[in-house]
Amino acid sequence: MAANKFPVEASHIMMFARSVADDNQIYYDEEYAKTTEPGTIIAPPTFVQASAQFDPDYSLRPKIGAPWFGSGGEPTGIKRESSGGGGGGGGGGGLHAEQHYEYHRHPKPGDILTGETKPGKTWEKEGRRSGKLVFSESITEYRDQHGELVVTARGVGVRTERPVDQ
Amino acid sequence: MALKASELKVGDTYSECLVEDLKRTQIVQYAGASGDYNPLHTDEVFTTEVAKYPSVFAHGMLSMGMTGRMVTNYVGDGRLKKFGVRFTSQVWPGDTLNATATVEEVSEEDGETIVNLKVETTNQDGTTVVSGYALARVDA
Question: ipTM for the complex?
C-alpha cells in the first residue's frame, strides 16, 4: 500500500477504534488522553492499515466511473472469460496471511504520514484446503512529516488455487 | 496501568472476549473505517455466487484489530513495540472470539524492560483464527 499523504485525524481514529470494538477513551477523548502516559490521543495498533483510504490507486475501493467487481444487478460487475472460482477466491484479490507491525512511536492526530511499500520475498506452498498457495510479502515504512520512521509494517498476502475448503 | 516486570511470571495469561455473535454490520463498519471494500467481506451475493464461499467473512485485519484491543488493554496505552500475527482460519458472521496473551519472556533490550507475549485468538469451536506475538515495554 502506498500513500503519498496520510493525515492522521482524530475522527478517523475514533471511527477506526469503533470498528474494532475498542472503547478505550484514549482513542476519542482528548481530555482523558492528556491524563494518560502518552498524553495525547494515539492510534490503535492496526490503524495504519487505514492508509488504504489515502492510496489513490487502492484496488479494493470502488472508483467513480470505473467497473467494480462486487454485485449490482448481477452478482459481479465485471464479466470474465471464466471465473472458475479460484485465483484468490474468485477475484477477491487474494487473502491476507500475515501482518506484522513494529512501532517506533504511535501515530497521533496531526501526523502526516507517508507510506512507501517495497516488495519482499515470495514463496509457494501446497495447501491442504486450497491447492497451490503463492505467498508474497510487502514492507511498508510509515514516516512522519519530519521524515522520522513511525511504523514499519510487513504484510504477507496469499493467492489460492481455489477457495479455501470449509 | 502499566505492567511491572517484577509482577510478571512466564506463563501468566490475560484473556478477553473480543466479540460475541459477530455481525455483518460490524464487518461493514470495519470496511468503511479501514477503506478495504473487498466485496468478499460485505457483499453476500458476490461472495456466495461468484467467489463460492458460504458467506461473507471478516477481514483478517478486523480480527487482528480486535485482538490488538486485548493486547493494549493488558500492556497499557502506548507501550506496544511489536505486534504480529498469522491468520490461520477465517472468521465468519456469528462467530464468537476469545483472545489470550501469555507471557513468554521478560527481558532487557536497549535499556528497556520488554515483555514478550504469545497472542492467540480462538473461535467458539476452539479453532485458532489469529496466532502471533506482541512485545511491549513494561515498568522495571
Answer: 0.97
